Amino acid sequence: MRLRFAGLAALVLVCLTPRLAGADATIFLGTTLAPTRTVKGFSAGVSLLVVGFEFEYASTAEDDTTNAAARKTTSGNVFVQTFGLPGFQLYATTGAGFYRETLRLDQTTNFELNNGGGVKIKLAGPLRARVDYRIFNLRGAPQHSTVQRVYAGLNLAF
């Protein structure tokens, strides 16, 4: 009986103990590789130690010289990350969302999946640099069904 009570008390204590939770926001600038063009966007996320969730929006402009469509993506992502490392944090992410491609009068909207990872590097106080690599798998009839993206950004932890 005492063992059962001790176990129940420990479980209640764990559930009532505040967890280390964090939130952050990132603005970024980078490159997509299908064909090579500038991408810009933002993300906001929340994490509980190792696991977190993030919303992201990114936009790539249309390029008439290469006949490349404008692309906008929105996605919800789940990530796992390291913690306790001095000065930086590694993470891997996967997510899903929607994309819209527009080239002149043609437009395609459909589902997208993405996978990737990166690093957040402490700069000063809550300010961090973030470097990220993603592979997007676009469904439907996009110009390119697989798109790679690399970006660097400023990340604010709060």
Task: Kindly describe this structure.
The structure is a single chain. With 158 residues, the chain is mostly beta strands. It has one domain: Porin. Helices cover 9% and strands 68% of the residues. It has one helix and eight strands. Strand 6 and strand 7 form a beta hairpin. It starts with a helix and ends with a strand.
Topology:
Elements: H1 2-16, E1 21-33, E2 36-48, E3 51-60, E4 70-81, E5 88-103, E6 106-124, E7 127-138, E8 146-157
Antiparallel strand pairs: 1-2, 1-8, 2-3, 3-4, 4-5, 5-6, 6-7, 7-8
The domain count comes to 1
**CATH architectural category:** Beta Barrel
Fill in the CATH topology.
Porin
| Average pLDDT level | 90
Pattern of helices and strands: HEEEEEEEE
Low-confidence stretches: 13-17
Shape: globular
Count of DSSP strands: 8
Largest sheet: 8 strands, antiparallel, barrel
So what's the CATH class? Answer: Mainly Beta
**Assembly context of the chains:** single chain
Structural class: mainly beta
Report the total helices: 1
Question: How much helicity do the residues have?
Answer: under 10%
Please report the distance between the alpha carbons of the first and last residues. 44 Å
Spatial strand arrangement across the major sheet: 1-2-3-4-5-6-7-8
Rg measurement, Å: 20 Å
Indicate the proportion of strand residues.
over 45%
Can you summarize this structure?
The chain is mainly β.
Jot down its keywords.
single chain; 158 residues; mainly beta; Porin; eight-stranded antiparallel barrel; 1 helix; globular
